[in-house]
Amino acid sequence: MSATRHREFDVTFIWTALLIALVGGFTIGAYLIWQIGLQHNLPEDFPVWVQAHGHLQLVGCVRLFIMGISLFFIPRLAGVPLERRRRQEWILPLTAGGLIAQTIGRLLYGCAGEGLARGCLRAAVAMGGVTEWLGLMAYIAVLAPVALRRPQGKNTGLDKLRPYFAMMAAGWVLYATLWVWFAAQMAGTGDMVAPRDWNQWAVEVELALVLFPVAYAFSVRNLPYFLYVPPVTAPVGRWGYAYLGATALVLGGLHPWALGAAPRTALTIAALGRVARDGIMLWLVWDLNVFVRTRPLPYILAERSELNPNPPPKPWRRWFDRPRWGRPEWLILTAYAWLAFGTTVDLLHASATLIGGRFALSQDALRHTFLLGFITLLICGMAQKMVPGFLHKPRLAYPSLVIWILVFGNASVLCRVVPLLLPLGRLPPRAISAAMLALAWSGLFAWITIALTGWNLWQTACLRRTGDVPVR
Ligand code: HEM
């Protein structure tokens, strides 16, 4: 326990997320894309594997990671310690246990014989969905009192970020509730594929209501320390509401009921929302000063606090600090470059839809630009900046590994996304073979990225602790 009543960082969330990513999500993705790229046979129940991969990545890898960091981060930002500590201990086992039970049930169902085995697997799927939902409810029950309380009416670092964390909570509840329904349907019918249109919508919900807002909220707070950029000056809260309005149009337009009732109108509404949302996101990225500095850098950034135990060195020392940390900020920079790229492509596509033009855009490529290029690289970069500090470690165990994580991470996004954006039908056969080969290798590159990140963090956790960090 530190000098305050705040709880120490629970690193088991990070180890579980990395383990599920390496054994489950990334391995399944790598296997599927290998088979697709080399034109080998796909598993008979391919849609089940695809959905299992997506769900493992979104819940097992990304959600657990965000939960672990936010349980440490949000109470400190709000200046209110966590109270419901016993409930906190249920979050990880319920979420991870439910996810694993559900995934095993779905993947083994096809090869189990009739009778008792299938009954047990159906029960595992149904129970897994509910257990995963209960894990999320435990998380919200633990964090809601912290996020809603204002210590003696004081302004806190959380105030302007509240709309983003509220979107995160709403998005997770919606996604998890849909998955309880999917799991119940699968268990009832024995068809282990979630309804495709609803499942696609659930992925949109997760991306738009959870991942973009939470990535922005963490960036507003951390990028000044990680990238040495000036703090944002924009009215962050108001931009959050504008983003929510645009997202409501996107999700309303892409909703299966709207698409079923009036597809043309629904797609137009979604395209309008996409134009507005992409515009807002590009403006927010610009305002973060990630690529171009438009404001001077104030010196308050050298403050030391529990949230920022390793503040940036003075400019002349930055070069000399490299042996301790490597350059995780390059991972963050490239993550933002992928976000800007994906958002621009989506903006062009949505604008073309509005004016009646057409160009084909692979939704799979766009989704992976955001999920792999932005979210995964951002997590890899931020984790190597934050986790050592949270664990009171003086440095990264292997700073030189960071450059390899950067190389493999970006290679995996390039190989996973670019081949799908090319007009393959109009390319010569050699170029098509090269594109398919790149696609096949993308999964392995991504797996290596996560394995190297996990190894570096694990070895860092084994280093000796520095003295306790002073708390502001
Ligand atoms: C290089 C690494 C990755 C590979 C090789 C990969 C592979 C795949 C493949 C082959 C599909 C099926 C595409 C189709 O429908 O034809 C897919 C879908 C998907 N992937 Fe990935 N993926 C990777 C990384 C990620 C990451 C990091 C995330 C999330 C954080 C993610 C989330 C998803 C989701 C949500 C879907 C859609 C699932 C569904 O339709 O239910 N993937 N991926």
Compute the CA-based radius of gyration.
22 Å
- Total E-strand runs: 0
What hetero molecules are bound to the protein chains?
Answer: protoporphyrin IX containing FE
The largest pleated sheet is described as: none
Spans of at least 5 consecutive residues whose pLDDT stays below 50 are: 467-472
How do the strands and helices of this protein lay out in sequence?
Elements: H1 12-37, H2 46-78, H3 85-109, H4 116-148, H5 162-189, H6 196-226, H7 236-254, H8 256-261, H9 263-287, H10 315-325, H11 328-354, H12 363-390, H13 401-421, H14 429-461
Helix pairs in contact: 1-2, 1-14, 2-3, 2-4, 2-6, 2-12, 3-4, 4-5, 5-6, 5-7, 6-7, 6-12, 7-9, 9-11, 11-12, 11-13, 12-13, 12-14, 13-14
The structure holds protoporphyrin IX containing FE.
Protoporphyrin IX containing FE binds at residues 29-30, 32-33, 36, 50-51, 53-54, 57-58, 62, 199, 203, 364, 368, 371-372, 375-376, 412, 416, 442-443, 446.
